[in-house]
Specification:
Length: 410
């Protein structure tokens, strides 16, 4: 959640998200038009691009050097690409290809997967486990969990009754969130066991298409956005463990009674009673546009970032203690010069007072010095994690080697 990549009709752009006020454009390429997939390996110089001009071809670039590392062609259109430091996953409608990102060799082809017209899949950013999740059925909400390191199926999770619409791992790969095409219920499962941990109700009034589902880096929050104007943020906590002792009120008594009742009610009923409402919300001034969200810590405060398909980035303050309605503090244009819009309407409200800053100020996940050759900007490492120097020191994807010679394109 430290950088943003967008594909456009003229190419692609990469931005750094280190500041609220200033939107820094890291790179812009107009070599390939109509880019509909652009995936950057954290904050490194490796970027994977797919264009409508050649929808069956994946191009891997070292954008700082302006060189192509390699390209691969597949039997049908590429629908999505996911990558971490260990694996690169290419998802087609009825097959999945797993590459070793170090040398781009094809390690595994998963054939005859259920029809997956949207290319729905998720890959853990934690390369230590490299779990991959994808739909196990086209008619029900079954999830197939695949171990990208051992190249074996780990388990299947019967997550929803209807087909899946969204999947996402938390930063460590220990939790997996999912939503179905109805979009009314979001569930969180433990990984690799697949036990249900949380169940959140987004709403019952109408079915929605959830387009973005994302954890915060500390796994305390889960954000869901859809084709409606409302973004929901849920807090992952066990209320019975975290709530202070309630005063002896009628409502408090009833709450304890219902909590006790869940111990002997059927699982389906008790599950309904344990569903939590959103901890915080955002009402966008647009509806019907595809958008993606991220929960990030920028300048030591928690922020909600929303990027819309019309080319705008909205930054909101999130109160991690009280939740409620998030405050819009900045709007940036992604299709202009790469700098913030010179529009006073962007400063819709002054930043929130820093009264809760002490409770949310956290060390940035971006290491000050590199522990991994070629990834000096990388912000994806878990805190305290040291990447062995030899892991990326050889092979065609050695991004800090100025004498690198890209392999022959395939």
């Amino acid at each position: 959640c430290s950088s943003l990549a967008i594909g456009t009709t003229t190419g692609y752009r990469l931005f750094s998200l280190s500041s609220v006020e200033q939107l820094d454009q890291v790179h812009e390429s107009n070599e390939i038009p109509d880019v509909y997939i652009v995936e950057r390996l954290f904050s490194s110089s490796l970027v994977v691009v797919v264009s409508h001009a050649k929808p069956q071809q994946m191009n891997v670039y070292h954008f700082k050097k302006g060189t192509e590392i390699c390209n691969y062609s597949y039997s049908s259109n590429i629908l999505s690409i996911r990558l971490n430091r260990q694996r690169l996953v290419v998802c087609l409608e009825e097959s999945i290809y797993i590459h070793n990102i170090k040398d781009m060799k094809l390690l595994k082809t998963i054939l005859d997967t259920p029809p997956n017209t949207t290319g729905l899949c998720a890959l853990s950013i934690n390369h230590a486990n490299s779990y991959l999740a994808y739909p196990g059925s086209a008619t029900s909400g079954e999830i197939t969990l695949y171990d990208g390191n051992t190249l074996k199926t780990a388990c299947t999770i019967p997550a929803h009754d209807g087909p899946l619409a969204a999947l996402t791992f938390n930063s460590t790969g220990s939790k997996l969130a999912s939503a179905s095409e109805k979009g009314t219920v979001i569930r969180v499962f433990s990984i690799p066991g697949g036990q249900k941990l949380y169940e959140f109700r987004r709403g019952m009034k109408r079915y929605v298409n959830i387009s973005s589902l994302v954890f915060s880096m500390d796994s305390q929050f889960l954000c869901a956005s859809s084709n409606t104007e409302t973004v929901h943020i849920f807090k992952l906590e066990h209320l019975t463990d975290s709530r202070p002792e309630e005063p002896p009120t009628w409502s408090g008594y009833m709450g304890r009674m219902f909590q006790a009742a869940t111990n002997y009610l059927p699982a389906q009923v008790s599950g309904m009673m344990n569903q939590d409402r959103a901890f915080a919300t955002v009402r966008l001034n647009i509806s019907g546009q595809r958008n993606i969200c991220a929960l990030s810590t920028i300048q030591k405060l928690p922020r909600l970032l929303v990027t819309t398909s019309d080319g705008h980035l909205y930054i909101y303050n999130l109160d991690p203690q009280d939740g409620g309605e998030c405050v819009l503090i900045k709007k940036h244009s992604l299709l202009g010069s790469g700098k913030m819009e010179e529009n006073k309407e962007n400063d819709l409200r002054p930043p929130l007072p820093q009264s809760y800053a002490a409770t949310v100020a956290r060390q940035s996940t971006v290491p000050s010095t590199s522990t991994m050759p070629g990834y000096s900007e990388d912000g994806g490492a878990l805190r305290g994690e040291v990447i062995p120097e030899h892991e990326f020191a050889t092979g065609p994807v050695c991004l800090d080697d100025e004498n690198e010679f890209p392999p022959v394109s395939i």
